[in-house]
Amino acid sequence: MLSTTQFRDSRSLLRLVPLALLLTLFLAPASMRAQESEEFDQYKVRISGFWFYSNPSGTIHGSHTGDIPVDFNKDLGFDTYPTFAGTVDWKFTHKNHFYVTIIPFWTSHQTVLTETFTFQGKTYEAGFTAKSNLHAVLVSPGYQYDIIRRKRGHLGIGVQVDLFNTSSSINATGVVDGVQQTVSGKGSLLAPIPVAGPQFRLYLTNSPRVFVEGNLYGMYFFGYGNFISTAGNLGIAINKHLSANAGYQLGSRLNVNGSTDRIGLNLTQKGPIVGMEFSF
Could you tell me if 88 and 192 lie in one domain? Predict the structure, then answer.
């Protein structure tokens, strides 16, 4: 049984509950803003552009019966070549991002064939002079959630869809039994592959001056193919909005198994990267 004094005290405490809730709602965003203001990595939109000196390797397999894998280096003489990579990242809340990355892999090479092979039902004889083209455009829209975000960096998990639009052609000319012949074949492949993995950024100093970051994405599909990529770089802030970055693409490996209606592709890209990052 409550006494009159206890009852009045209880009513006074109940009156304080709405006030406490209002203070909580008011102070919680302020506390979150204070936490965000302490973070070095603050932005709403980030645009990154990198120059990528790629060293491609792998094979391409035609969709015709009897085709054998054609090696980019051994058979076609592909070598290193420059390309670029661009990313737009929209951090629409404190820990949530939408982003899209575009990387074109376009290269061509002319060489004298040292071995005979078959591609897209056409036979290319050793000794023929062949011009080969490989166009592979990667477009990757994705979403990232930062499971850890602190003053000196973050650790996030990203999920994205890698859309590979690939086409390849081989045109060759040569002489067989005194007769000059021309052989040409081409194939294309559109491969959507969802991948996931961690991404991080860590500031190495007590100011937002020097940082390291990296990522690892991959996925395996039974009978269809697989994809894995990883990269790391070092960044130096020039000012609040601009930084210079340099690093290495440790490996970007795509494997799509061929069938009677699509070409097969085993493509690995690796090499140094250097670029700029603009945040606002």
Answer: yes
